[in-house]
Amino acid sequence: MITPTERSMDLIIKPTEMCNFACTFCSSTSIAANHKDKMDHEYIFNFLRRYPNTRTIIVNGGDPLMMSPKWYWKIIEFIEERKLPTTIGFTTNLWGFYQNPELWTELFNHPRMGVGTSFNYGDGRRITLERVYTVDIFWKVSDKFLEYCGY
User: What pLDDT digit, counting tens, does each position of 24-44 carry?
Assistant: First the structure.
């Protein structure tokens, strides 16, 4: 039997509603222009103080890459200073990475980081209102991620 001190939590955060895509099926497309607020780190740090066995911070949005990598490094610093078991997992369209991989590569290769992405067939997934995120573009983005991050 698992004791309460052996149990772990996961934390899902949405640090911003901003997104660099204009998908027809996503609420962030219509709210992102009006909501440029960013989550205060103290909410996360208070949670981690309360639940030091937090296994994963799952980051979605909007798109997590609308935040600066420095914002995430601050979380990693907090985790490592306290020797917490916590990792960070992104759900992102990787467009910001594709446009500027040098900005994100060190963070994405950190042992506490994991990255997930997705692809939707059809014309609902859009880079702009006029430009569909095609499967060919998705492969270019994922190939660049593989080249720079190796996973």
Answer: 887 665 655 556 678 999 999
Q: What is the number of residues in the chain?
A: 151
pLDDT tens digit string along 120-134? 888 888 899 899 999
Rounded-to-integer distance, Cα 111 and Cα 107, Å? 9
Instruction: Give the Å distances, CA to CA, from 147 to 49, 73, 93, 109, 140.
Output: 37, 22, 17, 12, 10
Q: What is the pLDDT of residues 44-82, one digit of tens each?
A: 999 999 999 999 999 998 899 999 999 999 999 999 999
**At a CB cut-off of 8 Å and minimum separation 6, what does 132 contact?**
123, 125, 126
